[in-house]
Design brief:
This protein is an alpha+beta fold. The chain has 14 helices and 7 strands. The strands form 2 sheets. A 4-stranded antiparallel sheet has the order 1-2-3-4. It has a 3-stranded antiparallel sheet with strand order 5-6-7, with no helix packed on it. Helix 4 runs parallel beside helix 6, helix 6 runs antiparallel to helix 7 and helix 7 runs antiparallel to helix 8. The mean pLDDT is 95.
Length: 330
């Protein structure tokens, strides 16, 4: 998926509203307010343009226990009105006003970067069409440095009949554009396209790619093998030669993607590296993800590796999570 503007963490999202029209300081007039029912928190998200999309920081604007927020709106009087209730909790309506010395005069709500956002919106309009005449508008953005534009272009490409662009995808010289096109192809093509698609990926050098391109390469392999056709033995060996030496990597996300694909294609000598990484994982999420992947390895187990794998579950039994974590571990 495209990814989050900002990661808030666990919660139960309910109502949202912009601060437009509130008699608040400028920072909060521009804020995007988001309610969390579970933890009784209202967050103020402060958006900053980032290419054709946004990045953000957030703060806890108000909180209470219990305060099961359900919805909110800015009233005509400039106050922020918040509704609470649900699940046998007393319903209520709160009114939030500002008292202080900062100006509450209305501010211009415009953000810079509108031209880039207009480009993205134009590409997203093409998600509803499927004419080949849009190809010249779409293709240049597959290699755009702005990920939001790349994502919009890739989705638009999938709406155009494959016969107009499949051959172009296999020989595209721009690495980013090739990966984007092959990701699109994996979603709409047939098994007859699998050999050329895999060859086009094998021609890239994983070690020389930037981090995002590495993710895209791994994702493209995964989609092509699961949606078009499983890998042949020759293809498995080629992919192992391409990525095996990169595992383990220096970040959690890469390690999980690499372990998943290497497990699927039956890479040798994976277990020792994978279990060591699972044991040493910096977070319980990383460890659980690796345990989930490594359970599918069907060769190379020794008594010692089995012992280490199952001993990990005694440690995992103490991990904290939602109500379902025990069942997931089971």
């Amino acid at each position: 998926s495209f990814g989050a503007v900002v990661n808030i963490g666990p919660g139960s999202p309910t109502g949202v509203a912009f601060g437009t029209g509130a008699k608040f300081p400028a920072k909060y007039q521009k804020a995007f307010f988001i309610a969390d029912w579970s933890y009784g928190k209202l967050y103020a998200v402060h958006l900053q343009p980032d290419g054709s999309s946004y990045k953000a920081e957030f703060e806890e604007f108000l909180a209470g226990q219990p305060l099961p927020l359900t919805d909110l709106t800015v009233g005509k009087d400039g106050a922020l009105y918040i509704a609470v209730g649900g699940r046998r909790v007393q319903s209520g309506l709160y009114r939030v006003t500002y008292i202080g010395n900062e100006s509450t005069a209305p501010v211009d709500g415009k953000h810079p970067g509108q031209e880039a956002r207009n480009q993205r919106l134009a590409l997203e309009e093409l998600h509803l069409q499927n004419g080949a005449e849009a190809l010249p508008q779409i293709w240049p953005h597959l290699g755009n440095g702005d990920r939001a534009l790349r994502f919009a272009a890739r989705t638009a490409l999938e709406k155009i009949d494959l016969k107009h662009w499949a051959d172009k995808a296999f020989v595209e010289e721009n690495t980013t554009a090739r990966l984007g096109a092959l990701l699109s192809l994996a979603r709409v093509a047939g098994k007859e396209h699998q050999p050329e698609a895999v060859s086009a990926l094998n021609a890239l050098n994983y070690a020389k790619l930037d981090q995002q391109s590495r993710f895209d390469l791994l994702r493209a392999y995964t989609l092509i093998f699961t949606r078009l056709a499983p890998p042949t033995e020759v293809q498995k060996k080629a992919v192992i030669a391409q990525i095996d030496s990169a595992f383990p990597a220096d970040n959690r996300a890469s390690n999980i993607e690499l372990a998943t694909l290497l497990t699927y294609i039956g890479a040798p000598n994976l277990l020792e590296r994978g279990i060591s990484l699972m044991e040493a994982g910096a977070t319980q999420e990383e460890q659980i993800a690796l345990a989930l992947v490594l359970r599918n390895v069907d060769r190379g187990w020794t008594s010692e590796l089995q012992k280490r794998y199952f001993q990990w579950f005694t440690k995992a039994a103490a991990y904290k999570g939602g109500a379902s974590i025990t069942n997931y571990l089971a």
